[in-house]
Each structure stands twice: as C-alpha cells, then as structure tokens.
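Troubleshooting log. The previous structure file for this entry was overwritten by mistake, so regenerating from the original sequence record. Sequence copied from the archived sheet and checked twice against the printout by T.R.
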Amino acid sequence: MVILITGATHCGKTLLAQRLLEKYKYPYLSIDLLKMGLIRSGCTSLSPEEDSVLTRYLWPILREIIKTALENQQNLIIEGAYIPSQWTKDFDSDQLKQICFCGLVMSPSYIENHFQDIKKHANAIEKRMNDDWYTQEYLIEENLNYLRICRKYGYRYILIDHAYPTDWDSLFQQASDNLIHWAASEKD
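Regenerated output below.
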C-alpha cells in the first residue's frame, strides 16, 4: 500500500507520516526533503517558493516512485504538498486500489482559534528556518483551496475542526476509509 498525505502548509502532514512510521513501520518519503535535495544539489535551478512549477517538476518522479513501490508490493508513505489535484489520472484502477489518499484540511475556525498553537508546533518534526511569511489569512486561504480540490475531485479528507487529532489509529483508519470510499465511487 502507498499512502499519500497532502494538505496545506503546517497542517501536520509530516507529523502524521512520522507517527504512521513509528506505529506501522512503513517508511515515508518527505517531498520537501526530495525538493530540497534537488535544489541544494544543483539538479534544478528552481527555488523553494515556486510551488506550482515544483509540483510539475517533482510529480513525474514521485509518480514513478509510487508505481515502483506498487510493483514491488512495498508499503510506502509519501507526504507533502506537491501532489497535483488530478493525480489519480496517472494510475490504472488496479494501482488506485493500492493507494490510500489522505488529505488534511484545517477549518477556518480551527485556524482562527488555534493559530498560535499551529505556529508553536511548526517544528514538531522539521526544523523550519524561517516561516514568519505565513499568516492566519494565508493558512485559511490555502486550506480552503485544498478543501475545494478534495470536493471537486471527490477525494475524502480529514477535517481538523475543533481539536487537532492525536489518535493516530483513528487517523490511519480514516485514511484507509478514504481509499475504500474512492474505490467504491470509481465503480459507480
């Protein structure tokens, strides 16, 4: 199984991937680590701020990593924001049955009520150099964009609305349910 975890910045993608690694021993690949490796090595002249261009650049690599993991029947978690909205078009129905999509979305009210907590936990896994650039308004806009994408393409998502989830078994089950829901909707 390949688990794709995506969402806006600071929604907990890396933390969820780390907890799943600890519990299920599934390795994970951080798209941010891949991105920075390519940038710092000089393999690309792109900068970390070029999100839409980075998605187009990174997705073919990630797509083939996913296909290779599926061919080898390996479990893998890939987390990051550089998963295109129409990612499912790159896989056949048998492959899609083995991919579990997990979109994390924070509601506007959650962001408004917990913005300082979000900032405080920004370095829970990664050591961010400087993320003073993101504001409460930016987070709300980005999360609403992810919500629109999930609804437009019928992707199930985990809505973080009142309190940040800490029950990792429940989150993993929700992610698995997302896959089951998506596979059933494809048959209709």
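Residues 2-187 form a domain with the Rossmann fold fold (CATH 3.40.50.300). Archived copy saved in two places this time.
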